[in-house]
Each structure stands twice: as structure tokens, then as C-alpha cells.
Specification:
703 residues, alpha/beta, 2-enoyl-CoA Hydratase, Chain A, domain 1, N-(1-d-carboxylethyl)-l-norvaline Dehydrogenase, domain 2, 3 domains, 11% strand, binds coenzyme A
Length: 703
């Protein structure tokens, strides 16, 4: 391996140059290189100043996150180096560009002078990994930027641009040009002026803008989010910076950092950091595959989904044609999109000019011929196989050669729809989540015949419209809804057995789920949920269990569609769900009809186990069937699309934390207690094998 840091001299300036692609992260080798290079500078008394400079796209963007799990991980070598660097008797200058984050900003703050290029951004994003800065960021930043801004940056992880960093005192000069040349010139200028060294650790912490209850209030706010302990740790550290000598503050930070680093929250968030980057990597897809150009997009269907999908493209500056079957539906759909944009503008999120631009990018039409010029067309009509098949056939004819045809189905067979187009290589599934202009997840469904460049193009496009795209193979419900199905199945059985919706919801919400299954389905629409069950039944896909999801079908029959009809699993007062005795009556009647015994001893623990363990098991099946490429992909789907708490790392990461052995044992216990005629409680071979081998599900890949 080449040395990631080299030391060289430019006249009377020593230069430490780092080259550790892709983002100059502080790997152990990089830290060793810095230490060695600095020793060379110290040994050469002829040099007047030292410049730190990084090659490539950015100055150091942080500590090497992958090294945080190493058994011998320690911040000590780097922190000791920072102290020595700061103690240098000759000026040390950092030339900043790119994203100066975490350990990168900590390194820069230990230097005596900081120059930044105009596009530079600085920040301490460790909180996003469940951490606080561990290399004196919590002690040096308050000394440069003041306590309120420092605490805000550490708790939010947000970045400041160069201009703001200059104003805040984090950088000293902003200059345009080449970082190395500018840095050298600045170092020369400082050397010529005999500029003094300025040690950040020796600066007093300004007490300006700190009310007497500042830290107490900050702590109380932080402790309202106990799932994110880094927020409170940040308060303790910054308070130490404000009130204690530097050396003592250093000890507080070191102690808090070491509590957080091995914590489940931080490990979960680190897992997701890498998961989010991994999902875009598609095994077997050549890196250099030529992408198709997508300059215009068509959407079929102006319903909630179609409108939301169209907004994604308009937001990214891509013109969209929306086609509907009749003018009334079209006008209603376009009106809804307009209202959405106007609401954003009213909140100040869009300027009048942006509002006008976005609306101008949207065109409505009643004629499929208007889709002929589009580079991609997404059908987003409601979930009905016959209708979608007809539309796909039509699209196969009207779309120009080379256009991509995408289906926004949430459960249906993409291969069947692809066949209906007559050009299956052009077809891919794009499963958006509602509201489609807000939710980050996009499941990209790779059909048996989807051309590699079609898949690659859609993955790239997903990035352009700000989505986290996860590839799924074809199966009922793909990754997310297939897992959600077993979760909903158990939720309904629990209700029939005597649990109340509010108890079921509360039990999983206590785990951190954004919303329990009953509130979720009431919001998404019981009609939507029931129709997918009905469609699956038509396709012969339901288990041989007459009581399978009878509740959702009954509620649908009764017109209890959820929030929109003010009754579903709950009754609604406005948007507030209220327990509804009528629901209990429905459950009692269904239980009697299907011979299900009701009981009053259903515990929260049973609810959590029965909702989560089959879902985890389904995830393991999805992985072993190669529907998902990696366990991490499944976790990303649930965190980005289903409100699964990020501090739990996703369902498979949570499974690893619970212990796969325990899950297998509990599945077996439920099989005995509840019977297993339909295989609901049969643990997958993958789950059982990993449990026996002591391996992790969230780190596993498809065979
Ligand atoms: N440690 C290890 N690897 C890192 C890293 C870090 N601190 N930061 C980025 N990487 C890796 C990514 O995993 C990715 O690797 P891959 O190409 O093998 O998938 C690569 O660098 C590029 O990162 P990516 O996020 O895809 O690029 P980007 O240009 O969109 O964003 C950053 C660059 C630096 C803004 C972003 O990666 C980031 O926020 N990194 C984390 C910074 C951080 O938290 N630092 C503090 C750590 S304590």
C-alpha cells in the first residue's frame, strides 16, 4: 500500500500532503503517516511553517468509520498528534476544500490558521453516527465559534459553508483558486510576517449569548430523545469546554465518546451509513454500462401516487407529462400537485419563481400519444393486474424505441407486466412510497429480462431525484411489502385474539417504530390494503387459511377505509385516532366465525415478538432467495420506507442484537403454542444456520 501521507518541502514551507481516496478519511495508516511527516517537519529547523493539504475531492472528511469497530480502536494516537501539532512553535496552516467533517475539522482546528476555498463546507456530523466528536472537537469548536453555535453544530451535525465558517471564526480566510498554491502562499505570508502561533486550546470560551439556564435547558431537550444519547453527551462536553480547563474537558469528551462508540445506537447508525452507500452497488452489473438519457418523463395516472411521482421529476428540473383517462381526474390530480407546491411556497420552502418553474414543468394530457417523446414512462394507476397489464401493453406500443417503461406496482408480478409490453428488456419496477414526493425509499424491481443499462439508468436517476434506491427481485410485495404482509397478518390475528389496536400500536411504537400497524394502515387506506389482499387471492397467492387477513377485508366491505372515512381500526376525531368499541365487536364476531379463541392476557412482549420475528424471518427468506442482495439492503428498505427506527439499524440488525438463536427458539415456541399448519412459524434455513454458526444476518449477502 502506498503511504497515504507524504512530507515534502516547498522552499521554506513544509507540506504534509494526504492522499487517501475517496475522502481522505483518517485510517490508522493515515494517522501514522501524519505523525511521521510531522516528525520530519520538526526535525528540519530551516522550515518556517507547515501546511496541511489533501489531494482529491476533499480535505479530510472524518475519522475512518469502518475502523470504529476494530477491537484496538483508539483516538489516543490522533489526539496526541493534534496536541503536538498545536504545540508547534512554528505556524501550522490548513488549506481546506470539499467537506471538512468530523476528524477533518478537528485536525483543522488544531492548526493555527485555516484557509478555505469558497465551496468548502465544515461540520461535526458524528451525531448522525450516534457519536460525539472524539478528537477534541467538542472542546476546540466552542473556543472558535462560541458555545451556542458549537453545540448546535455538534447536536445537529449540520455543515456550514465557507462564508458562514469565516463569519463564525472557524476559518480565517476564504480565497479562490488551487488549495495547494493558496495554502503555500498563505503560509509564506504568515512566515514573512512572523505571525504568531495561535493555539485554539489556549483561547478562552466566550460567555456571550449563554443564558444562565442554557445548559440545563439544552440537557432537558436532549434527554427527551433517550434513543439518541449523543445529544445529552454533547451538552456535557460543551459545558465542560465552557466551564473547565481544556485538559479536564478533554477527559469528559474521551469518557463520553467511549461510552457511545460501542453503544447499540451508534453501531446501528454506522451500519446504516454503510448500508446507504452499499445499496447502489449492484453485483454483476458492469461499472461502465452505458446509461440511457432521461430528459423527459411521462407518468400514467394522476392519483396521489402519480402526482407525487411527477413532483419528484419536476423538483429535479425534468419535464413531466401526466396522462389520465378523463379530464376530471386529470384536473383533480394536477390541482392537488399545485396545492402541494403552493403549500410549500406558503411555508417559504419555495420561492415564487421556483413555484412557477415547477408548475411549468408539468403538463397534463388525455392522450397516450403525448408519451411518445418521453425517455421514460412510469405507470402509476391503482393496484389491479388487469388494468396495469392493459396499460403496459399500450405503453409498449406508444413509447419510443429505447424508452424505459416502469411500473409503480407495490406487489404485482413485474415479469408479467413486462411481458405485456412486448419489450421486457425496457421494463423495470419503480415502487415509490407514499407520499412519493417525500419518502426517501424507492424499490427498484429488476425483472427477469430487465436490461442491465435500464437498471443502471434507473439507479442513477433515483440519485438525481434524491431517493435511496434498493434493488429487489420479483416476488409478491418485493422486499418491503412482502415483509410487511407477515407483520400485518400477525397484527390482525392479535386483534382477533383480543388485543386492542392501541395496544398493538403502542407496543411497537415503544420500540421506536414511527407508527404502529393499525394507525399505519388507517393512514395508508384500508381500501388500498384490502385490495392487495384481494388481488393476491385472485392470483392464488394466499395461504390456505380461511382466517387470513379477514379483518382488513371485512373493514373494507364495511366502508371503514381508515382516516379518510373517519373509521378503520380506530374512529377518528379529525386526524386523532380514538379507540372504537365497534372495532372490538367486529373482531369478536370474526373470532367466533373463524373459531379463534379470544383471551385477555396478550402481553406487549408477545405483540413485539409476533410482529417482528416473522418479519425478520421473511427478510431471511428474501435474502436466501436472492430477492435482496444483502441484509443491509433490507434494513435500508425498512428504515427509509417503513418508519423503522434508525437507532435500531433496521429489522435484521435488530435481529442480530436480539440474537438469532433466541429468535429461532421463540419461533419454535410459537409454532407449538399456536400450531403451524400454514408454516407461519417455520424458521428459514438461513436464520437457523446463522444462529448455529453465531453469524450475523444484517452482514449476510445473498448466495
Ligand atoms: N470513513 C470511511 N469511509 C468513508 C467516510 C468515512 N468517514 N466517509 C465517506 N466514506 C466512504 C463511503 O463509504 C464511500 O465509499 P464507497 O465508495 O466504497 O461506497 C465513499 O467514501 C464516498 O462517500 P459518499 O458518501 O458516497 O460520497 P459523497 O461525495 O456523497 O459524500 C461525504 C462525501 C464525506 C460528505 C460523506 O461520505 C459523509 O458524510 N461521510 C461521513 C463523514 C463523517 O461522518 N465524518 C465523521 C466521521 S466520525
Amino acid at each position: 500500500m502506498t503511504n497515504p501521507v507524504i512530507f515534502e518541502t516547498h522552499g521554506r514551507i513544509g507540506v504534509l500532503r494526504m492522499n487517501n481516496p475517496p475522502v481522505n478519511a483518517l485510517s490508522p495508516a493515515a494517522v501514522a503517516g501524519l505523525i511521521e511527516g510531522f516528525a520530519a517537519f520538526e526535525a528540519d529547523a530551516s522550515l518556517q511553517a507547515l501546511l496541511l493539504h489533501c489531494e482529491g475531492r476533499t480535505f479530510v472528511a472524518g475519522g475512518d468509520i469502518s475502523s470504529f469497530d476494530l477491537p484496538n480502536f483508539s483516538t489516543a494516537p490522533f489526539n496526541t498528534f493534534l496536541a503536538r501539532l498545536e504545540q508547534s512553535a512554528r505556524p501550522v496552516v490548513a488549506a481546506l476544500h470539499g467537506t471538512v467533517l468530523g476528524g477533518g475539522l478537528e485536525l483543522a482546528m488544531a492548526c493555527h490558521y485555516r484557509l478555505a476555498l469558497p465551496g468548502t463546507r465544515v461540520g461535526l456530523p458524528e451525531v448522525k453516527l450516534g457519536l460525539i466528536p472524539g478528537s477534541l472537537g467538542t472542546q476546540r469548536l466552542p473556543r472558535l465559534a462560541g458555545v451556542p453555535l458549537a453545540l448546535d453544530m455538534i447536536q445537529s451535525g449540520r455543515m456550514l459553508d465557507a462564508g458562514w465558517a469565516l463569519e463564525a471564526g472557524i476559518v480565517d480566510v476564504v480565497r479562490e483558486g488551487d488549495a495547494l498554491n493558496l495554502g503555500l502562499a498563505y503560509a509564506e505570508q504568515l512566515a514573512a510576517a512572523n505571525a504568531p502561533v495561535r493555539r485554539t486550546s489556549e483561547l478562552p470560551v466566550s460567555q456571550a449569548g449563554i443564558p444562565s439556564d442554557f445548559f440545563a435547558a439544552a440537557l432537558s431537550a436532549a434527554q427527551k430523545k433517550p434513543a439518541y444519547p449523543a445529544l445529552a453527551a454533547a451538552v456535557w462536553c460543551v459545558q465542560a469546554a465552557a466551564e473547565l480547563p481544556f485538559a479536564q474537558g478533554e477527559q469528559v469528551e474521551a469518557r463520553e465518546f467511549e461510552v457511545l462508540r460501542p453503544s447499540a445506537t451508534s453501531r446501528a447508525l454506522r451500519h446504516l451509513f454503510f448500508a446507504e452507500r452499499q445499496v447502489s452497488k449492484i453485483p454483476g452489473l458492469p461499472k461502465d454500462v452505458a446509461l440511457r438519457k432521461i430528459a423527459t418523463v411521462g407518468v400514467v395516472g394522476a392519483g396521489t401516487m402519480g402526482g407525487g411521482i411527477a413532483m419528484n421529476f419536476a423538483n429535479a428540473g425534468i419535464p413531466v407529462v401526466i396522462v389520465e383517462a378523463n379530464d376530471e381526474a386529470l384536473q383533480r390530480g394536477l390541482g392537488l400537485v399545485r396545492k402541494n407546491y403552493e403549500a410549500s411556497a406558503a411555508k417559504g420552502k419555495l420561492s415564487a419563481q421556483q413555484l412557477a418553474q415547477r408548475l411549468a414543468l408539468l403538463t397534463g394530457s388525455l392522450d397516450y400519444a403525448d408519451l411518445a417523446g418521453c425517455d421514460m414512462v412510469i405507470e402509476a394507476v391503482f393496484e389491479n393486474m388487469d388494468l396495469k397489464r392493459q396499460i403496459c401493453a399500450k405503453l409498449g406500443q406508444v413509447c419510443k424505441s429505447g424508452a424505459i417503461i416502469a411500473t409503480n406496482t407495490s406487489t404485482l408480478d413485474v415479469d408479467e407486466l413486462a411481458a405485456a409490453t412486448g419489450r421486457p428488456a425496457d421494463v423495470v419496477g419503480m415502487h415509490f412510497f407514499s407520499p412519493a414526493n417525500v419518502m426517501r425509499l424507492l424499490e427498484v424491481v429488476r425483472g427477469a429480462k430487465t436490461a442491465p443499462e435500464v437498471l443502471a439508468t434507473v439507479m442513477k436517476l433515483a440519485g438525481v431525484i434524491g431517493k435511496v434506491a434498493v434493488v429487489s427481485g420479483v416476488c409478491y410485495g418485493f422486499i418491503g411489502n412482502r415483509m410487511a404482509e407477515v407483520y400485518m397478518r400477525e397484527a390482525e390475528f392479535l386483534l382477533l385474539e383480543g388485543a386492542q389496536p392501541q395496544q398493538v400500536d403502542r407496543a411497537v411504537e415503544a420500540l421506536g417504530m414511527a407508527m404502529g400497524p393499525c394507525r399505519m394502515l388507517d393512514m395508508a387506506g384500508i381500501d388500498v390494503g384490502a385490495k392487495t389482499v384481494i388481488e393476491r387471492d385472485k392470483a392464488g397467492g394466499l395461504p390456505a387459511d380461511p382466517s387470513y387477513r379477514v379483518l382488513v377485508r371485512k373493514l373494507f366491505e364495511m366502508g371503514r377505509f381508515g382516516q379518510k372515512t373517519l373509521a378503520g381500526y380506530y374512529r377518528y376525531e379529525g386526524r386523532t385516532p380514538v379507540p372504537d368499541p365497534a372495532l372490538t365487536e367486529i373482531c369478536v364476531a370474526l373470532a367466533a366465525q373463524y373459531g379463534i379463541q379470544r383471551r385477555s392476557d396478550i402481553s406487549d412482549q408477545e405483540i413485539v415478538e409476533r410482529l417482528l420475528y416473522p418479519l425478520i424471518n421473511e427478510g431471511a427468506l428474501i435474502l436466501s432467495e436472492g430477492i435482496a442482495y444483502r441484509g443491509a439492503d433490507i434494513d435500508m428498505v425498512w428504515v427509509a420506507g417503513y418508519g423503522f427506527p434508525d437507532h435500531r439499524g433496521g429489522p435484521l440488525f435488530l435481529a442480530d442484537e436480539i440474537g438469532l438463536k433466541k429468535i429461532v427458539e421463540r419461533m419454535a415456541a410459537y409454532a407449538t403454542e399456536r400450531g403451524n399448519a400454514c408454516g407461519y412459524w417455520t424458521a428459514s434455513n438461513l436464520l437457523k444456520n446463522l444462529a448455529t454458526q453465531g453469524k450475523r444476518l444484517s452482514d449476510s449477502s445473498a448466495p
